[in-house]
Amino acid sequence: MSRLPFVSFITINYNQAAVTCQMLDSTRLLTYRNFEVIVVDNASAEDPTPLIAQGNYEGVRVILSDKNLGFSGGNNVGIKAAKGDYYFFLNNDTVVTPDLLEQLLQPFQKDPTVGVVCPKIRFFDHPNVIQYAGYHPLSKYTGRTWAIGLEEQDHGQYDVSGPTHFAHGAAMMVKKEVLAKTGTWEESYFLYYEELDWSARIRRAGFQIYYQAQALIYHKESISVGKANPMKVYYHIRNRLWFMRRNTQGWPLFVFCVYYFLLAVPKAFMVHLLKREWPYLKAIKEAIKWNWQHHIKANGSIDPPVELIPYRV
Prior knowledge:
Elements: E1 7-13, H1 17-27, E2 35-42, H2 49-54, E3 60-65, H3 70-81, E4 86-90, E5 94-96, H4 100-110, E6 114-123, E7 130-132, E8 162-164, E9 171-175, H5 176-182, H6 194-204, E10 208-219, H7 230-247, H8 250-274, H9 278-293, E11 295-296, E12 302-303
Parallel strand pairs: 1-2, 1-4, 2-3, 6-10
Antiparallel strand pairs: 4-9, 5-10, 6-7, 6-9, 8-10, 11-12
């Protein structure tokens, strides 16, 4: 009998120990038991270790970072500690379903070109409403994409599994071989667009990203950052431009920049100006300034190197 693949859950905690424990509680019901869970704490105000220890969770390790490394940096810390054949990156504000791991592992076993598998994601507070059932292609002229099925009632209309364009950062299983060929998460993003960047690199390396409709999780969206705040605006503005600079070139990049600076950014600026939301206006300015200051060299390195410092209003 062949050995069952070992799965490493990697999740990030930031000032949400109780939420993280709710996710860990849901893993008790998993029917596939050959896994470990690595909780990376991104310099929370309080050490989550005592609360997590009270839960007596099987196979859970907590790694404390002395600074906030962002989503990408925190996941990379988890990768260094992981022992799995597969890395399952899972948001701490999710709830898993019992047969999740069996379902996620199936596509890897059927097709060696599959490098990433994502489950269907529904909203926790609206458990029959879809958040993710794969991704539409990204427009190389506007830098926009959106999740298939977003905010639709789930009537089984997206129950056919298959390749998709991007993984969802809230729940994505990656086989170890992928990291050897593509590297890990790009830490310059800090927050948002990092899974799109990694997805683009993974597909360029010849791997498929696969949507597994029979796998399901529930997501308590935007607990960490909130529905709307200046930090969220900053990283969305900054990283959309940064993603396009890293992944497009020539005429498409030129068209995108014209669209972005003559339409998208002025529109966002006017919306917040009319509402007199001054911190949001500052966030937009700082996002553009950051891109002006950072450049991509021919070898892919960033000049100057990016400091992993969270944006502050």
